[in-house]
Amino acid sequence: MIGVDIGTTSTKSVLYDMKGKVIAYANTGYQLYQDIPDMAEEDPEDIFDAVIEVLGQVIRKGKVQSSEIKGISFSSAMHSLILMDQNDQPLTRAITWADNRAAKYSDELKNNGIGAQIYAKTGTPIHPMAPLSKIIWLRNEKPELFKQTKKFIDIKTYVFFRLFGVYKMEYSIASATGMFNIFELKWDQQALELLHISEDQLPDLVEPTDTIKGINLKYGDLLNISPETPFVFGASDGTLSNLGVNAIDPGVVAVTIGTSGAVRVVVDKPVVDPDGKLFCYALTKDKWVVGGPVNNGGIVFRWVKDQLFAPERITAEQMQVSTYDILTQIAEKIPAGSDGLLFHPYLGGERAPIWNAYARGSFFGLTRKHTRAHMVRAALEGIVYNLYVVMLTIEKLTGKPKSIQATGGFARSSLWRQMLADIFEQDVTIPESFESSCLGAAVLGMYALGYVDDLSVVKDMIGVTDIHHPNTDNFEVYRELLPIWIRVSERLEPEYKEIAEFQKKHSN
Ligand code: ADP
Q1: Of 130, 188, 249, 318, which has the highest C-beta tally within 10 A?
Q2: Confidence band for 92, pLDDT divided at 50, 70 and 90
Q3: pLDDT score at 257
Q4: Distance (Å, rounded) from C-alpha 502 to C-alpha 345?
Q5: What region, left, alpha or beta, does residue 449 occupy, with left being phi > 0 and alpha being psi -120 to 50 degrees?
Q6: SUPFAM superfamilies given for it (predicted)?
């Protein structure tokens, strides 16, 4: 079974045996176009070529015959948008989730109350990331492109179109467009009316477990894939990552701290947050992933490393050791709670939990006693407090968590892993999972094609590298500090816009 994950800066592919053992791996990167502020686009052609390249590589490296490939199943990044013309040619590049040019229109939707009505049916937070806002932006600011558009699709639909000549989008990617009614499993009429588009301008909807055969012979011959080989539509990278780290049982929470971060939990029915602050995306028709995406994950630790510890960084690089390891050793000497120094990590605005693009970072509680070491520890703690606040919002919808499966670059630090256990007051397991979205795609593929009865087989396919239990002394300190952290965060909120506008006005 081959799992393919179409990401924002690269596409990965893993060939597995039916027990989930990795046989071959390939990864090909491409450019993210950021020609003007707020733009973040990819060339669909580059991505299609990357998909063909990684498929070719794993088939060659794995030395498999076409008859041995039982299926190929797909994961992809959410929220991308490509406009296709009457001749089925792209009118735009793929506008990714990271593109912010629709911000003005998502703000309008939030302010006029229509956004809340649509969110309550679609489960996609109102934000420039989502195609809903992007299409309004295109209609207003690129009307000539909007008028020529035959289909509004995403990158995975594009790849399947090139391979099979049909426009089909599965529920998982559809549920992240902001236009898909998650309760009725169809395109939402109110959203379509708002956008001035008709249903036939959107792809046909299929289930994540639906399959298609008959690959275009040109690519079938090139890759040595038979027209009989089934392709599984699959799901989105976030939802498949929950599957790939075995966080699919009720109460098992997936926490990721990579460059950004996320908290996600699987439920068996779609649910929405009364305040519109959580997403609810389909993994399959019967499994839904509720959660919040966070901008400020490890990227904040990177800032600490680069801006507060530049000399240490240079020494560490000369000694060929990780500056992050040195910094976590420094932070480890400071007690839990950083002697009352609090840090709000909003260096890059924030999505969940506050959904405020103007949010900015701050240290609170500084005294002359505090050192740079306190600042590192406070930064690491602040990132986790912020994720914990997301968890508190999720908990209201899905109940108390039972345990945490955590992944991402942060897991290289035992101090940071323990902090997660202490602040969340939960057992934290670090699964030994390689390319979790590819594995998730492959397991979904095995399930879709009847090779396994249940998605839970994934638990036998991944190992465990570390387990952390909450330390009572530490979590008591965190319990005292958290309410202060949350209150300060709420009090700062009204001030963010003004300082952000000052920064914009005076930036050069
Ligand atoms: P991405 O999300 O881009 O795939 P990763 O999951 O590798 O990236 O996470 C990168 C982040 O992991 C870095 O920004 C840094 O904060 C953190 N990180 C990397 N190495 C370490 C380490 N040794 N100790 C603690 N954190 C680390």
Answers
A1: 130
A2: very high
A3: 96
A4: 19
A5: alpha
A6: Actin-like ATPase domain
CA of 434 to the centre of ligand 1 (A): 15
**Owner of token pair 């670059």:** 409
pLDDT 10s digits, 361-404: 999 999 999 999 999 999 999 999 999 999 999 999 999 999 99
By CB atoms closer than 10 A (0-12, 13-18, 19+), residue 498 is: exposed
Tokens 């700062």 belong to residue:
492
- The structure tokens listed for 475 are 């979590």
C-alpha distances out from residue 388 to 326, 394, 401, 478, 508, Å: 26, 10, 11, 11, 36
Q: By C-alpha distance, which of 454, 421, 444, 401 is closest to 250?
A: 401
Question: Amino acid identity of 196?
Answer: H
- CA gap 167, 165 in Å, rounded: 7
Average per-residue pLDDT for the chain: 97
Q: Which domains does the chain have, with CATH numbers?
A: 2-245+432-460 (3.30.420.40), 298-425+471-503 (3.30.420.40)
Q: Which atom of ligand 1 is nearest to the CA of 298?
A: 16
Nearest Cα residue to atom 27 of ligand 1: 410
Task: Confirm if 150 and 135 have CB atoms less than 8 A apart.
Answer: no
Q: Is 299 in the pocket of ligand 1 (CB under 6 A)?
A: yes
Place of tokens 């992944």: 407
Contact indicator for 106, 124 with CB cutoff of 8 Å? no
Comparing 433 with 356, the larger pLDDT belongs to 356
User: Which residues partner with 74 through β-bridges?
Assistant: 4
Residue 284: phi, psi to the nearest 5?
Answer: -135, -175
Query: Which of helix, strand or coil describes residue 162?
Result: helix
CB of 324 closer than 6 A to ligand 1? Answer: yes
9 against 108, higher pLDDT: 108
pTM of the model: 0.95
The protein residue whose alpha carbon is closest to atom 14 in ligand 1 is: 298
Ligand 1 centre and the CA of 407: distance in Å? Answer: 10
- Ligand 1 proximity of 353 Cβ (cutoff 6 Å): no
* 501: CB partners within 8 A, 6+ apart: 358
- Torsion over CA: 334, 340, 345, 350 (sign): positive
Determine the Cα–Cα distance for residues 466 and 255; give it in Å rounded to an integer.
Answer: 14
Q: How far apart are alpha carbons 279 and 273 in whole angstroms?
A: 8
- In residues, how long is the chain? 508
The DSSP letter of residue 307 is: I
Ligand 1 pocket, residue 322 CB under 6 Å: yes
